[in-house]
Structure formats: C-alpha cells, structure tokens
Amino acid sequence: MKDINIGLIGFGTIGTGVIKLLQQNEELITKKLGARVVLKKIADIDITTSRDVKVNKRLLTTDAREIINDKDISIVVELMGGYKPARNFILEAISNGKHVVTANKALLATYGSEIFPAAQKKAVDIGFEASVGGTIPIIKTLKESLAANKINSIMGIINGTCNFILTKMSDEDKDFNTVLKEAQKLGFAENDPTFDIEGIDTAHKMAIILSLAYGKKVDLKDIYLEGITKISREDIGFARELGYRIKLLAIAMLKNGAVEARIHPTMIPSGHLLANVNQNYNAFHIVGDASGPVFLFGQGAGMTPTASAVFSDIIDSARNILKGITCRVPLRSISETAMKPIKLIPMDNVETKYYFRFSANDRPGVLSKISGILGKNNISIASCIQKAQGKKGAVPIVMTTYKAKEKNVQKALKKIDKLDIVHGSTVLIRIEENLN
Predict the structure, then answer these.
(1) Which contiguous run of DSSP H or E holds residue 155?
(2) Per-domain residue ranges of the chain
(3) Under a CB-based contact definition with an 8 Å cutoff, are residues 3 and 35 in contact?
C-alpha cells in the first residue's frame, strides 16, 4: 500500500487537532483513501511544550524548511497562521512542487492573487476549506456542487465570536462588554478581540468567498465593513419588539453584473434560519439561479471541526496524487488567467431597509422635523415607536424604513444629528428581509 507523506507547519490548536484526527481515524482514512497518510515531520518554533497529543520526538523540528525541502513529503500543511513567514513558506513549498493545505484566511485574502497563480503555474493543488466556516464545506460547495450556477446571493454568519456575543446579548439581556469578557473566559474570543468584533476576520473570509462565487479578484479594502461594538441591549430589545434578531452578516449580492459586498450588523426576521443560528455556530444562505436556496450550517471554529476541514483537503490532494493528476478543479472556481477584478457596487448606491434610533426631546413637533428631513431625502417611514420619557426629557424614537439608498440615509442623518432637539448620534442598523 502506498504512503502519502505530509509535513505539518504549526503545532498549535489546529495542528494538534489534525494529528489527533489522524491517530483516531487512521484506519478509516486509509480505507477510504486506499493509501496511508503518514505524518513525516512537524515544524514549530516551540517543540518543548507538551500538547494534548503524543508524537514521536524525532518528528519534531524548529526548521520548517526541513519539510519544504524534503523530497519525500508530498503535501505541506500550513497551520501557523499570520502573514510572515507563512507566505514565504507556502510559496517555497509551491516552488518545490508540493501541494499545500492551509487554514490561513488572512494570508489568502491578502496575498491570494500571488499564491494561487503560483500554484497554477507549478500545477499543484491548494486546499483551503478550513479557511472559511470551519467544518462547513462552503469552499467545495461553491467550487464544485454549485459550479453550474450563477450565484445570485450569499449571506453568511461567519464569525463565531461575534455570533456568540450577539446570541448572549439577545437571549440573556446582557451588555456587550459583559458578554465579551465571558467569551474571552470561555476561549471564544482572543485577549485582543479586535479582528473578530470589528469584522476584520469576517472580511478576510468574505474576500475568499467572493473570488469563488464570482470567479474574479477582489480587493479586501473595497468590502464595506462595520463591526458589532456599537450594538446595545436597547437596540436588541427594539429588534425583538419589531420581530428581528441582530446578526453580523456578510452579504454578497449580484445585481446587473456588479456585486454588493458588505459586512455589518443586520436585523433579520426572527423566523428565518439565519436568525436562529446561535452561539458560536456559522451558517451560509446561498441562492443559485438553478439551485435555488441552499443552507449550510455547522461549527465555524474549534480544534476538531477545523481539523476535519483540513483533513478533507489532505485527502483530496492525496487522491489526486494517487491518480497522477493535479488541479482537476480550478483553485478558485475558474482558471487564474481568466480571473478579472469584481465590479463592486459602491456602498453609497446600496439600497436596503433601515432601523433608526434617535434620542430626542419629548415635545411637540419633534417627529415632524425628523420625518420631514427623511422625506426630503426620499426615505419613507415604515413604522415608528416612541417610548416614555427618559433622562432630561429625552426619549428614544425608533423608526424603520422602506428601501432607501445609503447615500440618502447618511445625508439625512447628518442633518438630523445637528438638530438641537436630538441628543447624540443616531443609531443605524440595516435590515435584510429578502432572504429567499
């Protein structure tokens, strides 16, 4: 029976999970593959700290190039994360004709336009299922299962930290900072949670998804991005009253040959599947022109779910090696030479429904002034809630709108926030109801 030798760069949480999975299911993997996957070398800067898995010490090295330059290793599994030296390691492995498996979404989102063409030129595979959605097979779904479809829309909850925080705030009536500390204590959030709560992690994943769904290149900085740090218990309460739940949603919509690409807190009807994706779970709602709606749900992070996705790519590459083929499926849906930049719709031109919360004086004429400014900017009010008097005579006034253009909304709110009857900045949360 043939051996397929792999080398692992990065012996952290996910790397440990990959080794545990191989040890636990080695017989099953061998049976399904028809060959043995052999872990030949493990590289990490720390090879002395004990892990939750036993390995032969002779496998360990602090020099990743022992893997990259080993002629007997066919697949390099990069799980160290970050940009440097991961980028160099991957490019060197490709140059040496090795297949690569990675979970490094930040690297692929930033340097994908360098890495993928290099892999195509050398005719080697890059597996990156674990880079988006953990155990959810979103990459394979877009590259293969929906290959014949024009993707009309993708909406995803793709950051477990943010989803955990918003779930706790919604279900247990807790404030943001309290839940963030709880998430950190449980290991769902890093000590520095900026990448998660500001939506940066979600943007990295979205950049990868966009290239797969539309077969074109996208610049990360062109994706509209807004995190969850401004979401309050008050707005979650009003969302519940209006029949919504708030989620950090990654949204891609194809419209007249161009694509909306935006990430922001979003009110979703409480009965929709996406609204009921809770805790640290992830989900994708995809609409293809032929397939119709497709819903994918599962663990978006964690040692074993991510290791499962990593191993699916290892097995795919191993199967290709056994058959003597490479790049059977284009790395990003279509040939790298055929990829072109995606035409993104400017955020100012996006049209959706909106939720506003104003803090205004409790006196006659306030509503008419606010609604008058909205009306002059072509924004129609769908509903209005005014609560009892608050501090210093200020009351919360909540409005939802019919579809309006973002540019008009921002212009109107700038004028409203300058009124002497309004206290502080207006809270804006976008609403998505067209989820079928």
Answers:
(1) strand 151-157
(2) 3-134+303-338, 138-299, 347-431
(3) yes
